[in-house]
Amino acid sequence: MNGVHYTGIPSEEELKRCPGVPTPERVLRGRIACVECVQEIPCNPCEQLCRFGAISVGEQITSLPQLHEERCTGCGMCVAGCPGLAITLLDGSYSETEATIDFPYEYLPLPAPGDSVEAVGRDGAIVCTGTVLKVTKVPAYAGTAVIRMAIPKEYIHIVRSMKRIKRHE
Amino acid sequence: MKIIETDIAIVGAGAAGLSAAAEAARAGAKVMVFDENRLPGGQLFKQIHKFFGSHDHHAGIRGYQIGRDLLSEVRDAGADVRLNTIVYGMQPDKSLGIICDGKSCVVRAEKVIVAAGAKENYMAFPGSTLPGVMGAGAAQTMANVNRVLPGERIVMIGSGNVGLIVSYQLMQAGAEILALVEAAPAIGGYGVHAAKLRRAGVPILVSHTVTRAIGSDKVEAAEIAQVDEHFQPIPGTEQILPADTICLAVGLNPMTELLWMSGCRFTYIGPFGGHVPLHDACLETTVPGLYVAGDITGVEEASSAMEEGRLAGIAAACSLGFIPAAEAEKRMEMIRHRLDTLRSGSFGAVRRQSKEKQLQAMQDYREKEGLAQ
User: Fold this and answer.
1) Do A5 and B342 touch (CB under 8 A)?
2) CB under 8 Å to B334, separation ≥6 — which residues?
3) Are residues B94 and B108 in the same domain?
4) Around A89, how many Cα atoms within 13 Å sit in the side-chain half-sphere?
5) What's this model's pTM, rounded to 2 decimal places?
6) Are the CB atoms for A67 and A88 separated by under 8 Å?
């Protein structure tokens, strides 16, 4: 059986239907939130976190978050604030060959800017090597770090996180 | 024997009990809270993840922070929280037998709110008595409260939100989750929790169960197998995983022992974890003046427990005249509305139906007994 309910991975169809996922054209134009929230659960902090009104859930708290592409500035407050860690920022305009992804990361140790890390997809499989550009962990993020990573542009819709770094005793 | 008198006695200083205490004490009632643990907060302080829900329900705030805020609210309201205090019995007149500082005492209160919570279900299988097989909640307490990692290589049984969240937290603590195993054909908890585990490389195996814990003095490996539609292991599908720990996240059941002693009436609701007390819309049971709140009324989650605690606290304080009836009713109606929200959507449907069934059973009981509402 396919889909997040059976595998823990949102299926292609689920992502296609998901109102929080930006269009590929918009991703190419610059940094934007990608809200991969495909299951109707009672949760809406993303709506309140966005100062620009770019994410709406509405009166019915179980509705899927709707992304309003034109209002998203790519500020990233939603990335650290989503309790489900379901939001990333995608930027397909980073360079000729590379895109960036900002993703939430709640493990230690943290990577450092400049590190080469293993970029993984929604299934945890290694997709390519990523370069860490920035690690943000500020009080407003309440313990969640947000990592910006550069990856080859063709993997922007596949990569969603990085492999955990092994602890050194 | 020493007799302690108070307006409202609350059993349990967890999410529900502390919320009830905050409301009742703020209204002016003399409130005492008893808990057998050395720390207050029940399960709240081991919830290191950000809560779901709406702003009203502290969404986005980590559980332990909610616990800290609640505790300071209770202290400001002036409730008396007695820790290391076991409530071992309750008479039909609601008087409580407690052991405080090693001494047995009787507590007489006008109103009693029991918010004793729930306990973990166990699952028996060959080898399940070996050290290294433990409840997921126990593993969570070890890692997040006592800072002890229960194992390095863990197999988690059960894909409800407890199994999913505790797996994630054990990875944060440094363990590896070899697999998360679920006997049902689908994942029980939220997809976003499951997705976090999948991104971290954890296999989630639905239609699978643990068939054996292998080891002489402790768990040295776990045998898992695929199950058929009748949940029977399919021969030939066995796999051996090199686990040192097997965690069971196979549901919870309400801690109703005190309530049974009080003589209050029960009904059986499977999705709520078994026998649950009958209660009305104010959370009062069939024993007048005895209220319930939180997982003891039917296993749900922390946000619902806090809302129910506030509701019971307001109802009990109102019945003693500390809050005008009209004001109390208005506030309770708002809480009921928020509880409806928490029980909405496809994940909340079963809980909503279960709660309706429980309230109906109470109404039927009162009609049968000729008791006015």
Assistant:
1) no
2) none
3) yes
4) 25
5) 0.95
6) no
B191 min Cα distance to partner chain A (Å): 6
C-alpha span between B158 and B20 (Å, rounded): 31
Query: Does residue B101 register a pLDDT over 90?
Result: no
pLDDT band at B103 (very low <50, low <70, confident <90, very high): very high
Q: Are residues B244 and B131 part of one domain?
A: yes
Mean pLDDT value across residues A134-154: 97
ipTM score assigned to the predicted complex: 0.97
Q: Which CATH number does the domain housing residue B241 bear? A: 3.50.50.60
Instruction: Read off the tokens for B138.
Output: 């126990």
- Tokens 């002036």 belong to which residue? B78
The parent domain of residue B115 ranges over 2-119+252-368
- Of the candidates B243, B185, B186, B188, the one whose C-alpha atom is nearest the C-alpha of residue B212 is B243
Give 3-state DSSP helix, strand, coil % of chain B, rounded to 5. 35, 25, 35
| Residue numbers in A near B55 (CB within 8 A) | 44-45, 48
Radius of gyration from C-alpha coordinates of chain A: 15
Does the residue B373 lie in any domain? no
| Domain shared by B262 and B214, yes or no | no
Give the C-alpha separation, B134 to B221, whole Å: 14
Question: What are φ and ψ of residue B119, in 5° steps?
Answer: -125, 160
User: Does B142 lie in the same domain as B114?
Assistant: no
Q: Do residues B227 and B256 both lie within one domain? A: no
- CA–CA distance, B223 with B52 (Å, rounded to integer): 34
Could you tell me if A142 lies within 8 Å of chain B, comparing CB atoms?
yes
Which residues is B248 bridged to in the sheet? Answer: B135, B157
Residue A142 and residue B201: Cβ atoms within 8 Å?
no
State the Cα–Cα distance between residues A73 and A51, nearest whole angstrom: 10
